[in-house]
């Protein structure tokens, strides 16, 4: 389990919320999202005493970070919850919520749990990857005050997402791609 700022790096790390949108009914044992209720309030872990993100290198410190998340949540007696949504249900969490995928115990090893996971920040906050992936340095306008960017998918400023039907098509396209790509973090 993790907190998103360790891996989703922003110019202002605390200005973030996230959501898990179920694209199908999620079956028990399919590796559902789990989270410690109220864990967005645990004492902050700072890598090297400074950063909310992990540098991807110091394996020991990363291990220590993951371990302390459980310890802190257990010390505060926070309940470990499972999100078992129906298609279309959404879990929205505050930046520091401790969450992650659970073990797959379903008899069918090919069971899916298709979702759209999205991280949100204000327009004046930039994802860190803007600094080194120039192709993806794009904020596509959806409507007034709403923009989207993606680390994984090439975005074009010209995608004409201006109504709900088109947004739906975009989500379907992203979901289709997502099933073909590998899970990249836990
Ligand atoms: O779907 C999952 O298991 C977790 C995804 C997640 O935590 C994330 O993308 O931040
Ligand atoms: Fe996450």
TrEMBL record:
Keyword list, A-Z: Dioxygenase, Oxidoreductase
InterPro entries to which the protein is assigned, alphabetical: Phytyl_CoA_dOase-like
UniProt key word Oxidoreductase: yes
Molecular function in Gene Ontology: 2-oxoglutarate-dependent dioxygenase activity
Protein's name in the database: Phytanoyl-CoA dioxygenase family protein
